[in-house]
Amino acid sequence: MTDTATRPGAPRILIPALLIALLGTIVTVALDTVLLWWAALIIGVVLAFAAVVLVDRRMPEAERTGASGTKEEGTTLHRTLVVPTALVLSVVSGLLLAWFLDLSLIEPVAAALGAFAGSAAALLLYRRLSAMLALSFAAVFAAGIIAIAVTALVLFFSGIAPGATFARMVEYGTRPNSLVQIINDGTTYYLAAVAVAIGFKMKLFNIGVDGQYRLAALMAAAVGGWLVLPPVLSQIVIILVAVAVGGAWAGIAGYLKVTRGVSEVISTIMLNAIATGITAYLLNTDRLAVEISTNNIGTPPLPEGSWIPGIPAAFLGSEREIFGLVLLAAAVGVGYAVMLNRTRFGFELRATGQSQSAAEASGVNVKKMVFLSMLFSGMVAGLVGMPQLLGSSHYYALDFPTGIGFIGIAIALLGRNHPVGIAFAALFWAFLNQAAGILPFDGIPQEIAVIAQATIVLTVVVVYEVVHRWGRRYQQQQIGKELGTTVAGPAEETAPTGAASDSGDGTGDDTPGTGRGGEAK
């Protein structure tokens, strides 16, 4: 019945979507002759969004079936939060795409394509954006505003003009060469954050990513420098060595956790110190190192056949190259998402992270899941140094990047352990690092970027917790209302009351059959 009812309506939805996208594009192109391109694009997308609202209100209810946001249409939350959030996201998506395309296309074409994408996104966001997802975007926006305000206050009381400083950072951070550097740095940050996020999903705090990737990079560089293998095979061997070393080093912490009950926080901190000592011991000219320059020693340089070629960034207007292993990072992100949401292992991982006692009652081997999650976290951590090793430096030396593992912890928190959220957080973190590089030339402390990064992480964690608690109560109230409308008789009165009393103070136990147990995803 549902398929029969919805399939005939599909063409009727596609036609308005195409017409709305064309409307926004035509308005943008027309106004671009008299206004700045970004102003024309904003007006075009806003008018397209207004058309979406009008068309959707006239659309028959049967054609709305299956839309996740339509169930909340007409509610106060939908009008005050979902609709404004969908409008802002439509405009921002169009502006970002137009700005990106403007790097390689002429301005009118880039603005038209951005308007088309933003107008098309307007219908999708208005129809599909749920209240809980809108709350997440609102939390990010609020955290960003708070972080900017705090950073501006620090600059103001330091006698530095906040507006000029931010403008200078944006101008420098959006230069073509800066964009390439942001993508390259973001690639390594992303891999580190995914490694941390795998542990977070199990409620495990893998602080040892930094030691895991440095030890893995050293051993992989040593193997690649001493072994002469054909191309492709050489890259595969180097990457496999890094994955094996990183996984084995993290597996030690996992083994201690499941057999001796040692906290992974303590063990990974200690393993970081041991890894630092091992790398210092091995990186010696009497052992694995050779002299690279007068003041630098490192592993033997990788033969050119072991290098991974970069991606030309001419489309960004830069003569530099993007790390070729950015594709590997994207594959890791896709694999992480599929593993979490489409496999039994991912389900058991999330279930164990939510409640170990409930997972045990369901037949999950908790100790096995703890060990495997630490093992997989370390295997991904072993990849962190590969973009730099195979794409830029081609040896492990004293100047190899350090501290990326700790940055990964902040980015995983900022991205809420979601593969897409982590990607945006990694690029944003890399942008702040790169944009702050110009500040010392203007006599401004470069630590401004550090203040902004720390403030953003702190505010995101706090705001998300507030939003999560409010959203949990909202979901319970919605469930109570649905039960009240579907259950006849006495249940019609008791269901909403029980839901409301469960959510009133946000407390309760986690045992099955209680109100708290219904919150598990």
TrEMBL record:
Ranges annotated as biased composition (Low complexity): 497-513
Main location: membrane
A Pfam family it matches: BPD_transp_2
Subcellular location: Cell membrane
Region span, Disordered: 485-521
Keywords: Cell membrane, Membrane, Sugar transport, Transmembrane, Transmembrane helix, Transport
One function term, GO molecular function aspect: transmembrane transporter activity
Transmembrane segments: 12-31, 37-55, 76-99, 105-126, 133-158, 178-200, 212-229, 235-256, 265-283, 322-340, 369-389, 395-415, 422-441, 447-467
Membrane topology according to the record: Multi-pass membrane protein
Single GO cellular component term: plasma membrane
PANTHER family xref list: ABC TRANSPORTER, PERMEASE PROTEIN, GUANOSINE ABC TRANSPORTER PERMEASE PROTEIN NUPP
Name of this chain's protein: Simple sugar transport system permease protein
Organism encoding this protein: Nocardiopsis flavescens
